[in-house]
Amino acid sequence: MGKKFRVAVGGVTAFAALSLAACGGGSSGDGANGSKGGAVQGGEQGPAPAVAPKEPVPAAFDNSKGWEIKDDEHDVSGPVISDEAGLVLLRWHERGGKTARVVARDAKTGKVRWSSKPVVRPEAPKSGLPVDSKVLLTRGGGKEYAVLAVTGSEGGDGVNTGGPVTRLAVYDIASSGDDAKPLREITVPGPALGFTAQRELGVVRVASDQGASLVDVVSGQVTTYDKNHPALKAPKPCQQLTGTCDSRRVTVAGQTPAGPLVQGYGAFWAGDWFSGDVVPAGAAPEHGGRTVTASSLPNGDALASWPDKEGKAQTNVYAVHDGKTGKVRASVACANESDSAFTPTVSGDGRYVLASRVVIDLQSGQGHCFEQTSTRKAITVATVDKDGTAYGKTSQSPASLDLSSGQASPLAEGTLLPTAIGADVAVFGTSTAGGKSILVHPRR
Questions:
Q1: pLDDT at 69 (0 to 100)
Q2: Closest-CA residue to 321 (of 331, 309, 335)
Q3: What was the pLDDT predicted at 366?
């Protein structure tokens, strides 16, 4: 094991990929389980258990047990929990290098269960991209899949420029060994600005400056929506002061059971339903230069941020719309941060939708807003546990929130907040860059 890497454990096209031999081969190649110790070792060949550092975490989690990833030579990031398989999936790649992998570690022990064959990362263009590779988790046909997405340009030389390309490698979550091959390899035209997995639909959305592509990871089908795609046309007339809602700035935000979720100007729609027919109480499609925007959720529903119809400064109405019908499932008004400052997320059990200072409980239909009040500072919510305990922070301090009562309590200064919570463990941290660690602790 390399000196600078530590895992501590306590109590459908041809896809360019490098073989281990191409990386140096045998025990001399760099692997995801050591900085210079050969290939990734899976299963019982994983590293011996060791004591993890005891950092302060919320009382629901046991910081005397668990495991840590710390790597000064490689980038390990983007942990995703699969409760179904009992895994934590991570993206691993050489710092400044040309390959990336999926590494799947046992959620309880930290040992490597499997890792993918090294995948070539296309070169990042000089202008840069917001993302170059990412590990995603999705399911379809009753199975879970790990997806390694990479983007950039390739094929250039000293004279000719390279062409942009995005590729997705799809792996069975039950893969094994240290050189797992993908079930299928999918190419999406052009560079990607971001990747989003709709976990319950088996769909990955690939965003680009030309529009968006929806990729079915089970079949490998890619549907690319440019501005002229017929699916982008609104299902009913939507004339505005200048043009129509589907004549400018139109893109696909994701997939719903009714069809692609389309974001137009001051409106959104999917299949036969139209946002103008399902405006939540207290909201308006447009007010004071602000317009409604919608994002897709993992289960095919949509989260929309509607301007407050009374024109209250910075206040929007956040509503979850049923993906089949567009009907409002739950909503709450909140003075939130700029909508461009966050992407909505969903709790590990799929019950809670989070959008900065907003939490919406899909089971009870209740919305919570943690904006600043006369007695409480604004709290940005990071995660919600299955018992309704949320974790977040003010501009200065960590906090826990009881969603049943709406009460917030300060946590001790320096308390680490979980970045992902699963059925049995919580993850603290997102990357090993800059000397940081990723910690995984079990529940008490």
A1: 92
A2: 331
A3: 95
The rounded distance, in Å, linking the Cα atoms of 31 and 438 is 18
* Residue 289 near residue 295, CB atoms below 8 Å: no
Those residues whose C-beta lies under 8 Å from the C-beta of residue 407, and which sit 6 or more positions away, are 401
Residues 32, 410: contact at Cβ < 8 Å? no
- Amino acid identity of 223? T
Residue 140 CB coordination number (10 Å): 18
Which tens digit of pLDDT belongs to each residue from 420-438?
Answer: 999 999 999 999 988 899 9
Contacts of 404 (CB under 8 A, 6+ apart): 388
What parts of the chain have a pLDDT lower than 70? 1-51, 125-130, 156-158, 160-162, 338-342
Apex 37 CA angle, 114 and 88, nearest 5: 30
Distance CA 247, CA 113 (A): 50
Q: Is 423:83 a contact under the CB 8 Å cutoff? A: yes
Task: Quickly tell me which residue has 């094929």 as its tokens.
Answer: 155
Under 8 Å between Cβ of 254 and 198:
yes
**Residue carrying structure tokens 């994983």:** 46
Q: Answer yes or no: are the C-beta atoms of 250 and 264 closer than 8 Å.
A: yes
> In angstroms, rounded to a whole number, what is the distance separating the alpha carbons of residues 328 and 281?
10
What does the alpha-carbon distance between residue 362 and residue 142 come to, in Å, rounded to a whole number?
23
Query: What pLDDT does residue 165 have?
Result: 87
Sign of CA dihedral 428, 395, 196, 70: negative
Q: Which structure tokens are listed for 293?
A: 């925007």
CA angle 91, 415, 103 (to 5 degrees): 15
Q: Which DSSP letter does residue 43 get?
A: G
| 191 and 123 Cβ atoms separated by less than 8 Å | no
pLDDT at residue 163 in the model: 80
Strands 398-402 and 389-393: antiparallel
Distance in angstroms (rounded) separating the CA atoms of residues 108 and 11? 9
Q: Which residues is 76 bridged to in the sheet?
A: 92
